[in-house]
Amino acid sequence: MTLSLEEILALTGGRLVCAASECVISGVATLAEAGPEEAAFLGNEKYYRDYLATKAGLVLVPPGLPQCPEGSVLVEVPNPSLAFNALVRHFMKAAVRGTPGVHPTAFVDGSAVLDPEQVCIGAGAVVEAGAVIGNGCDIGPGCVIGASAVLGENCRLYARVVVRERCRLGAHVVVQPGAVIGSDGFGFLMGADGRYEGIDQVGIVEIGDHVDIGANTTIDRARFGRTIIGEGTKIDNLVQIGHNVTIGRHCIIVAQTGIAGSTKLGDYVVLAAQVGIAGHLHVGDRVQVAAQAGAIENLEEGRAYWGSPTVPFNDRRRQIVALRRLPQLIKDVRALKKKVQEKGDE
Fold this sequence. Notes:
This protein is of the alpha/beta class and 346 residues long.
């Protein structure tokens, strides 16, 4: 697959500023490694020397560069890294997308709704009764789409993803291998006989458009109602999201984070790696929580937090500085105490 200059300008929203000749691009590479039929980008001034020496056929650059490498076409864009990603995504989509159709070893229930000429169902995949698969979906090997589950258009599920019964995915959702959407929430009650009894989880998971979900992440179905993942949210590998959690739009949830049941996150929240959020809390819009923090109280909109339990970020920094000074402070106090005692003995 190739891209013409006109197609690249359309994909990136760029402006042609330097053109040695018409070009056709068939791939992407770094500035140092790219050849005449590949595109590269300059996103950091540290690579300016590579830029001047590049053999790339086309380079995406920020506004205002004074020099143009010999033989390269330059396209000016506000954010070269982001624009380059549009090219990468284009070529990767062509490379990884399977041939439309249902693999002979897959099982698709007769009541499932899908167009075999518009979707890819991989080897050993299972699509259960009443499931709806939108056009452009690519269902990887070994995936299971539960009864009456719904996938919007152009979803990409890699190998061994499970979407359990009645759960709903929007359009352009990407799910990495081994993720489970709609597993039972962790709910048990102690019975009269002293044994735990499971609480039925009869709700669903609902995922918005353009959500990305990492490998081996688990999102529990609601006890009643919905566990909700908002539009554009990006979830890393090995994240646990409990039942009836609501996550807003365009959030970032990083690896090994756990969010307990019925907690609500606003929009544009960032939870760094290994963050723990207790249940039934509210996390305001644009909150940022640093790595390995643990929240046991509501977090106010627009603030940054750190520590376990969480405190405002700057307060935690001061605590760390104070702790580092503590050994010397102890020595100083002991020395002062000794002087006082010696003076008292005189």
